[in-house]
Amino acid sequence: MASFLELTNISKRFGGVQALADVSLTLEAGEVHCLVGENGSGKSTLIKIISGVQAPESGGHIVIEGREYAHLTPVESTRCGIQVIYQDLSLFPNLTVAENIAVGQHLGGFHGVNWDQIRQVAKKAMERIGVSLDLDAKVSDLSIANRQLVAICRAMAADAKLVIMDEPTASLTRHEVDSLLSLVRDLKRKNICIVFVSHRLDEVLEVAERVTVLRDGKKVGTFDASEMNNRKLGVLMTGKEFHYALSETDLSAQETVLSVRNLGRSGDYAGINLDVRAGEIVGITGLLGSGRTELALSLFGMNPPETGEIRLRGKALALKSNREAIDHGIAYVSEDRLTMGLVLEQPISSNAIVTILDKLARRFNLIPADERSETVDRWVKDLSIKVSNTENPVKTLSGGNQQRVVLAKWMATSPQLLILDSPTVGVDISAKDGIYEIVRGLAAKGVAVILISDEIPEVLYHSHRILIMRNGKITGEFDAHKSSEDELRVAVNA
Amino acid sequence: MPESFARFRRSHEFWLLMVIAALVVFLSIATDSFLTFQNLFDLLTSYAFLGILAAGLLVVLISGGIDISFTATASIAQYVTMLLANRYGLDWFTVFALATTVGIACGAINAVLVDRLNISSIIVTIATLNIFFGLLVFVTGGKYIYSLPDWFSKGIYWFEYIDANEISYGINLQILALVVMFALTWLILNRTNIGRQIYALGGNREAAQRLGFNVFRLNLLVYCYMGLTAGVASLTQAQLAQSVAPTVLVGKELDVLAAVVLGGASLMGGVGTVLGTILGLTLLAVMQNGLILMGVSSYWSQFFVGAVILISVSATALSSRRKRKGAMTA
Fold first, then answer.
1. What is the 3-state secondary structure (H, E, C) of chain A?
2. What's the rounded Cα separation, in Å, for the pair A233 and A236?
3. Residues B127-164, buried b or exposed e (16+ Cβ, 10 A)?
4. How many distinct structural domains can be found in chain A?
5. What is the distance, to the nearest Å, from the Cα of residue B46 to the centroid of all Cα atoms in its chain?
6. Nearest to A207 by CA among A180, A174, A244, A247
7. Taking CB atoms and an 8 Å cut-off, how many pairs form between chains A and B?
């Protein structure tokens, strides 16, 4: 069988950065191919070359169904049947489902619009993949999963032979991911080649036949997915071996920092009992909507419980605001706080102390400069943030180091209890590992940690104890050292 | 079509229609003069200028941009055209061709600046408003043109009808231009691929670019269309006022913006309809007219216009927030 697409010796340089160096890649019709690599490994550049947004340097060859191109234009790429579904889906929220799917009809020179034809094209595309959505619904009214279906239908309407999906599962629930993967298998049966770009390696391996790994703009290799596992891929992507799993420690002698009894809030959760000792990392997992985030917000004073009590080192708390929670030594780092919790244009130092301005403030609310820089320097050192100058804007830091600054910001409040809600969403492996290392270090210093995550390996390998939440209740408790991923997965999806 | 009617009942346009209907009923009862053929005819004639501009601005807002400079554009178009019409004795066709060409040229300047400088369109067009207007006032010395060509002053009166009080009605230049411009705008927005590209551009600029829409050409088209409407509107205003004054149009831009926003267009782009704009303009016109007929000071008129905009925009924002909440729990 001839390959659908062959790339040979593709290189691309942006200024002084070699984004891609001599990468070759073959994609077969009807295969599911995964493209993995850390941020900056060249994945997006490769996609842009395939979709014609960028031209490779001379010396490279692109062969599509036997025809050779030195480089592609976006129009040529589309004509060859190449469709990219970007992470943001590239949909028009203000337009209807039908128009989004058949938007290709609007291309070309000035011409009239045949609305019947647009509906026909959209209907046919939906039939091809067996979905039915309201053609007249506005895309802004759809769920994320349905929006993704619209994007896939659009690719079908354009007669795609190769569909490249960039991080398609990033914002889907487990159930939605499953239906997406089964849809991918359907497309494969129609002899369409699918390229998956994803951070979530376990999902990648579930559906892919081959995996191509990129690192620093070079191709590490293409492997059979059946020979790969999460850990092996991690090593190939980063070139580093990671040691997961906490060592077994006896924490029974430690003081109980957080003690929650019979906590409830109607509609969110009920009958929650939870203890976290100093130095302990308790993982909480469960499906989206299981009440885990609502519980975390309650512990942080932002979603007051209606029944039950929260004790911090034996003292009963009735938190009315997150400000009070912070004053009591509770820190809450959420998914969006990691990505958006920084003022990117502002210096690292200002970002790091923003949570403790009132503690640093002296007379007339002025902040002594020496104390400010002392605090900043201490956290930069403790969290091993690599900076040349703490007065540089945060945006000059790498993603992983930015995340350390967010943690520094909260560590500066010297918390007794740290709540992490999905702290590594959209973060690549090395940066993830950095975050885990810091969290482990904090626990070793006696901070009680609650780690909330969707990803079962994350809670399993980085907690002492794992609690499963479902429909607002804690339905299971697992000892991290005596449990497997499968056991947890069954408990979560039960 | 029960389903499309259900959709319409949930739309912004439906609520506008209800408010206008209530207002019309109220004014018809409260005043003797509101619901007269003469009043409605005058209303239509005098709001044609704002309406034609609203059609142009609607297109700009849908594309995700904004234009503040169109009143200055209209002033220039008016002045240049009437000056040349007086000097060279032009005809209807040439006068319109000239006014729209001047308008389109000013629009093109806006489009190039917005696209090439990559500065937000509100800043660019506030600047060009001042530049256009400043130049016009400097060159003309602020002098009025009082005498217009006879045929222009007479205007047109199709299907003329004279009532018992010897007041004549008919399709005049203002009404004709208003209807033609609304119809043209509707056709472009709903029946051409370029119109749909403009909606798409306003909805998601990056996606439009990725799909291969030519964003610069769309911007050029949108701002030139705004210029074209400014050219047409300026002639209807000159004909109605029977004179050209370089300084009377500038300052009306916020009234036009108010009508379009009342009609449901979003400053974020991608949203807005011709029907909504017509209703927004109607609401504005009926409200201002009603206040005058009821003898309310014109200062209050501005207060009410402001309040109604605020209420309308908050109602839209609230209902869309409720809708989003509903979708999340569903």
1. CCEEEEEEEEEEEECCEEEEEEEEEEEECCCEEEEECCCCCCHHHHHHHHCCCCCCCCCCEEEECCEEECCCCHHHHHHCCEEEECCCCCCCCCCEHHHHHCHHHHCCCCCECCHHHHHHHHHHHHHHCCCCCCCCCEHHHCCHHHHHHHHHHHHHHCCCCEEEEECCCCCCCHHHHHHHHHHHHHHHHCCCEEEEECCCHHHHHHHCCEEEEEECCEEEEEEEHHHCCHHHHHHHHHCCCCCCCCCCCCCCCCCEEEEEEEEEECCCEEEEEEEEECCCEEEEECCCCCCHHHHHHHHCCCCCCCEEEEEECCEEECCCCHHHHHHCCEEEECHHHHHHCCCCCCEHHHHHHHHHHHHHCCHHHCCCHHHHHHHHHHHHHHCCCCCCCCCCEHHHCCHHHHHHHHHHHHHCCCCCEEEEECCCCCCCHHHHHHHHHHHHHHHHCCCEEEEECCCHHHHHHHCCEEEEEECCEEEEEEEHHHCCHHHHHHHHHC
2. 5
3. ebbeebbeebbeebeeeebeebeeebeebbeeeeeeee
4. 2
5. 13
6. A180
7. 72
What pLDDT is recorded for position A413?
79
- Altogether, the residues listed in chain B come to a count of 330
Structure confidence at residue A374 as a pLDDT band (50, 70, 90): confident
Q: What CATH code is carried by the domain that includes residue A298?
A: 3.40.50.300
pTM listed for this prediction? 0.78
**Is the Cβ pair A103, B211 closer than 8 Å?**
yes
- Residue B330: what pLDDT? 36
Q: Which pLDDT score, from 0 to 100, does residue B328 have?
A: 42
The predicted-structure confidence for B19-49, as pLDDT tens digits, reads as follows 999 999 999 999 988 988 889 999 999 999 9
Domain locations in chain B? 2-317
Confidence of residue A341 (pLDDT cuts 50, 70, 90): low
CA distance A97 to chain B (A): 13
Same domain, A234 and A128: yes
Q: Give a yes or no: residue A86 inside a domain.
A: yes
Q: Which of B1, B7, B188, B193 to probe the A interface (max A CBs under 10 A)?
A: B193
Structure-model confidence comparison of residues A24 and A426, the more confident one: A24
Chain A residue at shortest CA distance from B324: A141
- pLDDT tens per residue, range B160-189: 888 878 787 888 999 999 999 999 999 999
Q: Is the pLDDT of residue B329 over 50?
A: no
Q: What is the ipTM of this complex?
A: 0.89
> Residue A345 domain-assigned?
yes
Contacts of A106 in chain B (CB under 8 A): 193, 196-197, 200, 213
CA-based nearest distance A92→chain B, Å: 5
Domain that holds residue A78: 3-238
For residue range A456-478, list pLDDT tens digits in order.
888 888 889 999 998 889 988 98
**What's the confidence (pLDDT) of residue A335?**
66
Which CATH class name applies to B2-317? mainly alpha
Cα(A50)–Cα(A40) distance, rounded to whole angstroms? 17
Tell me what percent of the residues of chain A surpass a pLDDT of 90.
26
What pLDDT is attached to residue A487?
A: 83
Question: CB-based burial of residue A188 (10 Å sphere; 0-12 exposed, 13-18 middle, 19+ buried)?
Answer: middle
What is the rounded CA–CA span in Å between residue B237 and residue B247?
13
